[in-house]
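Subject: Protein entry, chain in single-letter code together with its C-alpha cells

Area: Proteins and the way their chains fold up in space.

Attached in line: The record itself begins immediately under this heading.
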Amino acid sequence: MTNRSLLGILPCIVAAISLGGCATATKFRQSKLDSPAVLEESRQRSAFLVWQDVQVFSIDGKVADAGFLTPQGGGRFKIDPGMRHIVANVRFNQGSGVFEGKAVIDVDLRSATTYTLAGKVVDAEVQVWVVEKKTGQAVSEVARGPFMKAPKVVGVPIII
C-alpha cells in the first residue's frame, strides 16, 4: 500500500473511531413476553407544512429506536407491563419551521393492552400523555416540557 492510498483511508479510520462512542447508549429491547403492553407513536398531519409526531425517545432510561425504515411517528414498542418511565419527543411544524420538545411520563402499563402516545403544543410547551387505544381514555397525567427549534439534519455524502 502506498502512502497516497493510506492518506485516503485515514479519514475513514478517524471517522470510525470518532463515531464509535455514539453506539454506547443502552438500547431498549422489545419485550419477549407472550402478552406485553404495546406503546405506539402517533402522527398528525393537517397540511403540507403543518404536522406533529409524538415519538418514544426512551423507556426506563434506555434509548428507543423504532428502526431506520419506520416512518416518523409510526413506531410500535412491546414493553413489559408495570410502572414505566417514558421520555417522549414531540417534533412539529406549524408552518414556520421544525421544532421539538421532550416530556417525561410515568405510566402503569397493563399486559395485552395497546396504548398510544398523544400530544399537543400549547403556547411555549409540548404536552404529552398516554391513551389506551381501545377505550380512548387517558391513563397517565399530562407531562409538559419546553420546545425549541430542531437542529438541522445535515446529509453527509459518502463517496466510494
Remarks:
- The chain has one domain: 26-149.
